[in-house]
Amino acid sequence: FAKFDVATGHSIADLQNKIQKIYQALSCVIFAHSIVLATKLVS
Questions:
Q1: pTM value surpassing 0.85
Q2: Strand ranges (DSSP E) for the chain?
Q3: What is the pLDDT of residues 23-40, one digit of tens each?
């Protein structure tokens, strides 16, 4: 039972890590797109 709890904890931490990386990647993409849109609007 203890082993199962440890394994679940690890997989949850792993999942949070992946979600954080995906979120950061999305933030970068959205940021880049907004810069492109801003330059198009300005010019």
A1: no
A2: none
A3: 999 999 999 999 999 999
Cα R_g (the chain), whole angstroms: 19
- Choose among 26, 23, 3: nearest CA to 15: 23
Sequence-ordered alpha helix ranges (H) in the chain: 2-42
Degrees (nearest 5) of the Cα angle 34, 38, 41? 140
Query: Residue 24 half-sphere exposure, CB side, CA atoms within 13 Å?
Result: 6
* Joined tokens for residue 5: 């709890």
Q: Token pair for residue 4? A: 């199962």
* CA distances, 12 to each of 19, 37, 38, 41 (Å): 10, 37, 38, 43
